[in-house]
Amino acid sequence: MPLPAGLTQRPLALDDAAAVTAIMAAEELRDTGQVSIEEADLLADWQRPSFDLPTGTVGVLDGDRLVAYAELSGPDRAHAAVDPAHHGRGIGSHLAGWLQERARSVGSAVVGMPVPQGSPGDRLLEALGFHVRWTSWVLAMPDGATIAAPPLPAGVTIREATPAEHRAVWMVVEDAFLEWSARARQSFEDFGAQVLRRPGFEAWNLRVAAAPDGAVVGAAVVLLAGTTGFVDKLAVRRDRRGLGLGQALLADAFAAARGHGAVRSELSTDSRTGALGLYQRVGMDVTSVWVNRAIAV
Q: What domains can be seen in the chain, in order of their start residue?
């Protein structure tokens, strides 16, 4: 679909991050009643060495004002948002077409993006032929509730990661995520851009479970978004699962966030991981449901 009359488009730059964040936040608030996106999320993703911002993004402008955007952030991974005040103008359909064309140009066979279940974006993508690849859930602890930390195996400690452990954390996380995510292994440099060089990163954001010999056998990345502690990544080495390390890391990560001012504890998971039941068993409640809709290109 062509760009609607009266609008223009251009590639994005790093200094567009604040405007894009505002558009995404407006859609999230309208669709889910809460806002999770932060400018740091975009900057961390956009500064990955593997990502070319000028060719991987497009912004739609009404005059000088940015009103929508789209990005192909990975071979089959996309994001898009339209200012709710500009819905109904055909911008979303145009961006869906742009993403499919961009995905084809880099050799992808499919492209998909997350949208809140039942939202205008979900309905639009369904109408355009996008199917649901997987379902995601955002979960939160009830106000005032905490997760009980189970006893640790003998000699195992949970603590802040040291710089010397950063590569080991990356390996544990990637090994675990690649068990269920059909994608290429993320480079340590991209991991570093998204986690270690994320704006606002502090050492306490990276937690590890260390075996008696010092080996990293589990890891968590916890972010502080306003007054919310958000566990962005959680992984346990395959040979150390079933020992309570996942719950222990989760309890530690949320406790670390509370120690830095968090009053709310959140995370997200999806149907590829099989982890929803684990989080519900420790007392977390689903607060919003998202679907990843994709289409062959």
A: 8-113 (3.40.630.30), 144-262 (3.40.630.30)
